[in-house]
Amino acid sequence: MPKSISWRKLVQMLRNLGFDGPYSGGRHLYMTKGSHTLAIPNPHRTDISKHLLSEILRQAEISTDEWNAMLKS
């Protein structure tokens, strides 16, 4: 399971994985990659929990191993 992460770092990592944005729309911001749209949480003062991060990665179709490899580089 991935560790908790700041909102800014999440956006940076998703951009490195090919996502564009974040864009505003509705209640949450979203990022896109091709025809895939991924809702991301609004920025807050606290980090994004590991449980929410794992759900975001599942919806983005990013494996935990791929995510952890990106964090190490």
Share in β-strands: 15-25%
CATH top level assignment: Alpha Beta
Radius of gyration: 11 Å
Q: How much helix, percentage-wise, in residues?
A: 25-40%
Biggest sheet features: 3 strands, antiparallel
The figure for the number of domains is 1
Query: At the fourth CATH level, what is the homologous superfamily?
Result: Hypothetical protein
Strand order of the largest sheet: 1-2-3
- Mean pLDDT across residues: 91
Task: Supply the helix-strand structural class.
Answer: alpha+beta
Q: What is the H/E order?
A: HEEEHH
Oligomeric organization of the protein chains: single chain
CATH fold descriptor? Metal Transport, Frataxin, Chain A
Distance from first to last alpha carbon: 18 Å
Number of strands: 3
Q: Which outline best applies?
A: globular
